[in-house]
Design a protein that fits this description.
The chain is of the alpha+beta class. Strand 3 (86-89) and strand 4 form a beta hairpin. Strands 2-1-5-4-3 form a 5-stranded antiparallel sheet. The longest helix has 15 residues, at 164-178. It has helices spanning 3-16, 42-49, 60-72, 127-133, 138-148, 153-160, 164-178, 183-194, and strands at residues 26-31, 37-40, 86-89, 92-100, 113-119.
Length: 200
Amino acid sequence: MPSGTILASAATATYRKTRPPANQGVGLLLMDSSLNPISCNDETICILSYPEAPQHIRHLDVFLRDTIRARLLNSQSPQHSHFVTEFVSGKRRYRCLAFHLNRHLRGSSQPTFELLLERGISGLFFLPRIAQQFKFSRREQQAVELLLQGLSNKEIANRMNISPNTVNTFFRLIMIKMGVSSRSGILARMIRASFSSASI
């Protein structure tokens, strides 16, 4: 089925359904290697089209393609990390988790990227400020964010596409930069920051 047909079908379903509560809705978007949308769920359309009603979008495939390029691509990031990690829709903040899919199937229309759009955990939005203060690299900041989500070393390694040994190296560097001696020390600093707008 052509991608435009799949997307049109998703939009039609959106008209018929009541939008789920924002804190329960998770957007899911599949793209090809050229970052053209292949398929998405209803919540993706609601998140990215807000405050416009989805039924007012005439060409959903064009709208999503343009929105991906305008709002979800990170032009300041290295080539291997195409997407922003968070964005704002209305007054709500969303986290953008990107996954590069292994290509077991051939053909340009096969999904290459999967984006997960979820309502952000408010406690994580102080992280960019701390990352800047302690001069975290982009990958160090990503490792800390995954740590704050409660992921294990192995899970962090899988998410970041690196080895567990490299994860340990990131955390050793982070501990040195923050002046703490353990991962619990990292978490304690982050928790304190979530209750204060002042510098640590």
